[in-house]
Design brief:
The strands form four sheets. Strands 1, 2, 6, 7, 8, 9 and 18 form a seven-stranded mixed β-sheet that branches. Strands 11-14-13-12-15-16 form a six-stranded antiparallel beta barrel. It has helices at about 15-25, 40-45, 60-65, 70-80, 85-90, 110-125, 180-190, 210-215, 250-265, 280-295, 300-305, 315-320, 335-345, 400-425; strands at about 5-10, 30-35, 55, 95-100, 105, 130, 135-140, 145-155, 155-165, 200, 205, 220-230, 230-240, 245-250, 270-275, 345-355, 360-365, 385. Helices cover about 35% and strands about 25% of the residues. It is of the alpha+beta class and about 425 residues long. The protein folds into two domains: about 5-200 and about 360-425, FAD/NAD(P)-binding domain (3-Layer(bba) Sandwich); about 205-355, no CATH class. The radius of gyration is 26 Å and the shape is elongated. The structure holds flavin-adenine dinucleotide (FAD). Flavin-adenine dinucleotide binds near residues 17, 168 and 170.
């Protein structure tokens, strides 16, 4: 049952909302967390393929760099609550964690749901109501300065008022989890600017049937470069994979923000995969020559087995147009050169990207210029706070996005608590 008035209302029970509600807690302060779906944190439950990559081991500066220019906005919140604070926080809630390759932390159980359960238990302990199927349909301010929140709860319209509101309703990606961008409309109602939004950390689509032919192949330790009009735009080293319609995996997802913005600007976009980044052209040629002289009676197809994942061999043979049964001593200089060029720059034309349905995060959101980075309070409307992905903050894959959601929510929660506590006649904690 919803009361008519609360000190603090938090809208959206994703990772940011769960944290903000808990951190806003003080014993004299009424708080409520409203979630429109039947369960809280649906996206968190599926994060990291259900394992949840919580955070990353990286130091502060390189961590901030993962957010590009938007990293500056996060500097203060990370100075207050960063990766190891988050890990300690989870340990205190009985969620032990483990460190994996790439500095990535996961729950020891490999279950993202353990994290959701821990936050929900904490809310229970603090007796903070988490109301599910409570869909906030509008947010406004009454003449007395209180917020007025229209809620559709289990199908019925209800009006709630509040002294403080925190919008943690997420962005637009994976809308089936409840993140459908409604927080943008609430923010706009208070004059906030919403910067252009686009799917980010999203698989990209490539021309022809190349990807389909090698779908499922995963490449480690490759360099992918992005090209437009014969100019290299950027490149990244790491892991990627082929899908039925294109490419995905950590480096592609990270490059996707650049790729999407180039596509949106109608630029011609190509990626080139360097399958042998550890060898420059000269060294790779020497390696091919060695193979050819040491195994001169072997077939061309056999040699490719030592150079490529099995599923890519036929594709290479088709592209190069070399007889797969040809003995290595019969391979011409030109054929060897074409093989080398293909290994160093396997080209794929990028023709599009997946939709929000498959984007890990949204780029764009509530303009950071209008939010105080030291409090997460709106610069336009006192007592209105934001945290998490609803803001124009998005980072690379590797645990960076959840950390920013939790860190900004921690800060917003603390600020809301301190403000209420101060208004109750207590000093700042
Ligand atoms: C498949 C996938 C895997 C991911 N894996 C990782 C990972 O391993 N590591 C990582 O760092 N990041 C990962 N991310 C990104 C990360 O999950 C998000 O950045 C994070 O969930 C954002 O948190 P949030 O609380 O701001 O928003 P959300 O998680 O989007 O939560 C917003 C909540 O608000 C609710 N809501 C929306 N509108 C209303 C309304 N009008 N009324 C009431 N409630 C409302 C929604 O139902 C939702 O529960 C992944 C994302 C996806 C999609």
């Amino acid at each position: 049952m919803l009361a008519a008035h609360y000190n603090t209302v938090v809208i959206g029970a994703g990772p940011a909302g769960l944290m903000a509600a808990i951190e806003a807690y003080n014993p004299k302060h009424s708080i409520i967390l409203l979630e429109k779906m039947r369960k809280p944190a649906l996206k968190l439950r599926i994060s990291g393929k259900g394992r949840c990559n919580i955070t990353n081991e990286e130091g502060l500066q390189s961590f901030l760099n993962r957010f590009g220019k938007k990293g500056r906005f996060l500097k203060y919140s990370f100075s207050q609550f960063f990766n190891h604070d988050l890990l300690n926080y989870l340990h205190k809630m009985d969620v032990p964690t483990k460190l994996e390759r790439g500095g990535r932390y996961f729950p020891q159980s490999d279950r993202a749901t353990d994290i959701v359960d821990a936050f929900v238990n904490k809310l229970d302990q603090l007796r903070i109501p988490l109301i599910t199927e409570a869909h906030v349909t509008a947010l406004s301010k009454a003449e007395n300065g209180q917020f007025v929140i229209q809620v559709r709860h289990s199908g019925k319209p209800i009006e709630v008022t509040a002294d403080q509101v925190c919008i943690t309703s997420g962005g637009l990606s994976y809308p089936a989890t409840g993140s459908t961008g409604e927080g943008y409309l609430m923010a706009q109602a208070f004059g906030h600017t919403i910067t252009d939004t686009a799917p980010s950390l999203v698989p990209v689509l490539t021309a022809g049937d190349t990807a389909q032919r090698i779908q499922g192949v995963s490449l480690r330790n490759v360099t992918v470069s992005v090209w437009s009009e014969n100019k290299k735009v950027t490149e990244l080293f790491g892991e990627m994979m082929f899908t039925r319609k294109g490419v995905t995996g950590p480096i592609i997802l990270t490059l996707s923000e650049t790729l999407v913005s180039m596509l949106d600007a109608s630029r011609e976009v190509q990626i080139k995969i360097d399958l042998k980044p550890a060898l420059d052209h000269k060294k790779l040629d020497q390696r091919l020559l060695r193979e050819i002289s040491e195994h001169s009676k072997q077939s061309f197809k056999n040699m490719l087995k030592s150079l490529l994942p099995r599923k890519m061999i036929d594709l290479f043979i088709d592209i190069l147009g070399v007889d797969p049964h040809k003995h290595l001593h019969q391979i011409t200089g030109e054929e060897r050169k074409q093989l080398r060029l293909l290994l160093k720059a396997f080209p794929m034309q990028v023709i599009g990207h997946d939709s929000y349905d498959h984007a890990i995060v949204t780029s764009g959101g509530v303009s950071l210029k209008e939010i105080n980075p030291t409090t997460m309070e709106s610069k336009l409307t006192p007592n209105l706070y934001f945290a998490g992905e609803v803001m124009d903050v998005n980072g690379e894959t590797g645990g960076y996005n959840l950390t920013s959601s939790w860190s900004t929510a921690w800060l917003a929660g603390r600020e809301m608590r301190n403000k209420q506590w101060g208004e109750l006649g207590h000093g700042k904690e």
